[in-house]
Amino acid sequence: MDQRKIVACFIVNVWYLNIVTWLMMWFIKNHNLARRRNRQLALRNRTFVRRMVGLAYLDSIIGYDDVQCMNQIRMDRRTFHYLCQMLRDHGRVKLDGVLTMEEQVCMFLHILAHHVKNRTIGSRFCRSGETISRYFNSILHGVLRLQGTLLKVPEPIPNAYPDPKWSWFEVFFIFYKNYF
């Protein structure tokens, strides 16, 4: 073989390797893009599913019957919706579109009723602990603004109370007041 044929074969082999290398790089790039696109779609679907799970849990508490509502938030559905309306109208609780008023109040009452942590409520309603904390404080401030409407000042019991059991309590209160 002469020198020209060897150089020509070498150049053809280099071009062939170049083309194969570029094709492999193109396939790897497209494969990585497809994997990234599938991962993004999976994350979007997972977020949608988490939102639906949280709404389903809320609906299981306040959507079906008063027994479940009383067991979970210690309030019947009519009173629950009345409280939500009062907080919306007079409690100055802002709705920012992330959580509905019913979801905020349900999380607030569930925490108070069962003395659970933000992490537990977050897993049940599929929300972060920071979101739970922020909306808990928002509803708490709304309830405190409604204290004049919601809380009643107790009436003092007169000394001549007609119930005979009261005299035993009166003795205890006098003892408690004098010694403690």
UniProtKB/TrEMBL annotation:
<dbReference type="InterPro" id="IPR045249">
    <property type="entry name" value="HARBI1-like"/>
</dbReference>
<keyword id="KW-0812">Transmembrane</keyword>
<dbReference type="InterPro" id="IPR058353">
    <property type="entry name" value="DUF8040"/>
</dbReference>
<feature type="transmembrane region" description="Helical">
    <location>
        <begin position="6"/>
        <end position="28"/>
    </location>
</feature>
<keyword id="KW-0472">Membrane</keyword>
<keyword id="KW-1133">Transmembrane helix</keyword>
<dbReference type="Pfam" id="PF26138">
    <property type="entry name" value="DUF8040"/>
</dbReference>
<feature type="domain" description="DUF8040">
    <location>
        <begin position="53"/>
        <end position="143"/>
    </location>
</feature>
<protein>
    <recommendedName>
        <fullName>DUF8040 domain-containing protein</fullName>
    </recommendedName>
</protein>
